[in-house]
Amino acid sequence: MTTTPATAPSPGPAMGPVIRLRGLRKDYRTLGGRSAALDGLDLEVAAGDVHGFLGPNGAGKTTTFRLLLGLARPTGGSIEIFGEAITSSTSPALARVGATVSQPGFTPGFSGQRNLRLLARAAGLSRARVREVLEAVDLTDAAHTSYRRYSLGMRQRLAIAAALLTGPELLLLDEPTNGLDPAGVVAIRRAITRVVEAGTTVLLSSHNLIEVQQLCDTVSIIGEGRLLATGSVEELLGEQKSRTRVEVADLDGAETELVSAGFAVTRDGQALLVSGHDDPARITRVLAEHGHYVTELSARRPDLESYYLELTGHAVPSPTDEEETS
């Protein structure tokens, strides 16, 4: 198969998860003793997925990325990539991995293309490969523009291009859309989509929950160094979690009747949020049988933001919040 702008090497025989973490632990010394950045983290990422990696600041996302790349040693547990144990930054499996955990040292006065050519030459790659990755991230028209004139979004895309030079089968992206305007986010999303269509697996840490919900196949949410939830977006936010917002004159009376009928009910301002049902029409029947008449009925399916808040107890971080660096 011919290598195209974001094409990964052809996959080998069927295998287990591309990434498998078991009981991963990372402790750091502090003034008060020791602190666990990761506390028994389990994680699996399947081949071909875009896997979202979410958690509040300090949850351990960047620490996990550094351990995956062999840039830090775990205190306990195991790390496997492509079925091979990762013990250091020279582990053989890492030759199949690209990452933007730390940006390459681009020279401001050089063009984007010249910066990539320097990296390609060091890796023994051709100039044709540089053209391919520039096309993959939509930077062909800006190839000859000085790096210092690049916007933040263009710099992020050039970092992704650098990570793609060797044709990785796995791409680790640490907050690729952080701080970008809407146009920059769209450009990054387009670049990631091209990478995935070419067969590359992507692990994406992000604070942009809308982005994750639109782009990712599967999601893992962590808090205090532990896995809180994992699965497809549909599984995490499935219909079983749907709720119905009900407006009715007598909130107390309506709530009593619905709870008696087996519904789970919470307050939402001057309305009720009702769950535990397959058919919203049953809500209106129960209420009407007891003299309560609904003035408004609307479906409320939770989004990833509300689910994140429910699991972690944290509001969604601001795009300008800095991730932990340990």
Provide structural commentary.
With 326 residues, the protein is α/β, with parallel strands linked by helices. Helix content is 30%, strand content 26%. The chain has 10 helices and 14 strands. The strands form 3 sheets. A 6-stranded mixed beta sheet has the order 6-7-8-3-9-10, with helices on both faces. Strand 4 (76-81) and strand 5 form a beta hairpin. Helix 4 runs parallel beside helix 5. The longest helix has 16 residues, at 182-197. Residues 1-14 and 319-326 have low confidence and may be disordered.
Distance between the termini: 40 Å
Read across the widest sheet, the strand sequence of neighbours is: 6-7-8-3-9-10
Q: How large is the share of residues in beta strands? A: 25-35%
Average of the residue pLDDT scores: 85
Please provide the ordered H/E string of secondary-structure elements: EEEHEEEHHHEHEHEEHEHEEHEH
**How many strands, what sense, and barrel or not for the largest sheet?**
6 strands, mixed
Question: What would the keywords be for this entry?
Answer:
single chain; 326 residues; alpha/beta; six-stranded mixed sheet; elongated; disordered N terminus
